[in-house]
Amino acid sequence: MTDIRRTVLWVVFTMSLVLLWDGWQKHNGHPSMFSPAPKAVATAPAGAAASGVPAAASTAGGAQAAAAAATPAAAPSEKVTIRTDVLTVTVDTLGGDIVRAELPKYLTSPDPTVTDQLLQMVHLQKKPEFTPEPVVLFNAAQHYRAQTGLVGGSGPLPTHNTPMTAVQGPRELEAGKDEVKLRLESAEVGGVKLVKTYTFKRGAYTVGVSHEVINAGSAPVTPQVYLQLVRDGSTVTGGAAFTPSFTGPAVYNDKAKFKTIKFEDIDKNKVDIEKHANDGWVSMVQHYFASAWLVNEPGNREFFVQKRPGAVGVAPDTYATGMVFTLPTLAPGASTTQNATLFAGPQEENNLAKLAPGLERVKDYGMLTILAEPLFWLLDKLHGVIGNWGWTIVALVLLLKIALYGLNASAYKSMARMKAVAPRINEMKERLKDNPQQMQQEMMKIYREEKINPIGGCLPIFLQMPIFMALYWVLLSTVEMRQAPWMLWITDLSVRDPYFILPLLMMLSSLFQVWLNPPAADPMQQKMMWIMPVAFGIMFFVFPAGLVLYWLTNNILSIAQQWMINKQLGVN
To answer: Residues 287, 248: contact at Cβ < 8 Å?
Structure first.
């Protein structure tokens, strides 16, 4: 039974680490060990417009308006930059696209890979200087843009391919002011004029976007406003040792709730979303950050996710997600306004929940969301009191140890008694080695007499491994812990320990726990008991420092509790 208990423990621990390693591989762009890498399909799904303008939403009569013409070859373009305290946004007057968004309060960081560290150790090279720069969301490198325009009607309308004129005004948030605006006006296209007004507010990662549609023609028109986010399918890389848990489009509404769509599924035309709803939003998600079009006022909208083929040898394929809204019919000379909000910023869970229903779901917790969400809530509350994320993790382990004290004490008492009777059991096994049936009976008799539960030590591990894995996802996904220091050399809990000190301490503490536990009857198994902490410690070299801190603290408290119980029972 002792061997069975050990086998169960190691199987649980090993499988948990295998799953963590597989997740780490997938986050770094490598295929999963459990499924082959998907093959991209070159063909684009139906409905993708060559001009990048989505088809009009379905009307009551079922008709579809034609997409607008492609961008004029020599269309004028001017870049206008707006600066606030938290955003630096560049707007292209060609269509009024947002083509760049810098987040000056969030800086890039170097990627401390194990290979680089080892090379520096071997060659004694000085670590190259790294200059942090603001994190950038919308950018030309990934063809990442936020676009809006008009479709519908019987002819062309102003789209994101239509040149616009920027009205003169301030371009920076002035001291004492709470907002700055940028107004863009298009010429008449099909008798319709579009005026876009961007409103930037102090301290906000949201941009108010109003679309004033003016019918300057001689016939009624029923325009539709589209809001879309466009980017290529490249994986986002950043300054952390762990790259994004998910990169790609996401759609939310009350009918289908939250749904992410992989780029490879779009390639294969396997997009399954709820296309019509009375609420909801669309987003482009990446590690720690996201962009989203939000319209919280109820109203019918049509969602789309499309692949846009790029020009061969010139531009890559891009992927678009967006919404289309049908506006009221405008008589000649009439106008109407549609308002939306563009979010471009960090995945701060508490702030996201305030912006739109379900927006906090862009923060990817993987399969263990049900545990990760309350775990982050508890961490957030503790951090509000402690003020340091490293000590917050230590406090979390302490609270869990207190909550599981009785259960752990029972397990450690069982293990201490097992260590105390180990010589007696070994003598009995040697004496009855030719009679396995009697040996098993005698062993169970000893366990009953000493009140030992041979699998009693398994339960704490079963309970704590899901918490350990959920914390892994919290550390991987929580932007609040990005570049969060603990003390001394640990300046970022979301990446690995740059000097491997925490993993080495964790390895030593695990070895000390092996010494405290009863020895295995099988000599080969006992050797494995000493080898496994070393193997796992090496694997922990690439895990986030916060996760290793959690496990090290758990080991230290477990050692202290087991040492006390061993002393109480007189076990050496």
So the answer is: no
SS3 248: strand
Q: CA–CA distance from 213 to each of 149, 180, 339 (Å)?
A: 10, 22, 11
| 74 contacts: CB under 8 Å, gap ≥ 6 | none
**The two structure tokens encoding residue 490:** 């640990």
Can you list the pairs that 313-319 forms with residues at least 24 positions away whose Cβ atoms lie under 8 Å?
A: 315/143, 316/143, 316/232, 316/233, 316/234, 317/44, 317/232, 317/233, 318/52, 318/143, 318/230, 318/231, 318/232, 318/233, 319/230, 319/231, 319/232, 319/233, 319/248, 319/249, 319/263, 319/266
| pLDDT 10s digits, 86-98 | 999 999 999 999 9
CA-to-CA distance for 300 and 486, rounded, in angstroms? Answer: 48
Total Cβ atoms within 10 A of residue 88:
17
pLDDT single digits (tens) 292-338: 999 999 999 999 999 988 776 667 889 999 999 999 999 999 999 99
Give the Cα separation of 544 and 495 in Å (integer).
4
Interatomic CA distance for residues 570 and 328, integer angstroms: 84
Q: Is the pTM higher than 0.70? A: yes
Q: Would you say how long the chain is, in residues? A: 572
* Alpha-carbon gap, residue 379 to 399, rounded angstroms: 11
Closest CA relative to residue 345, chosen from 204, 536, 251, 554: 204
Paired residues of 299 in beta bridges: none
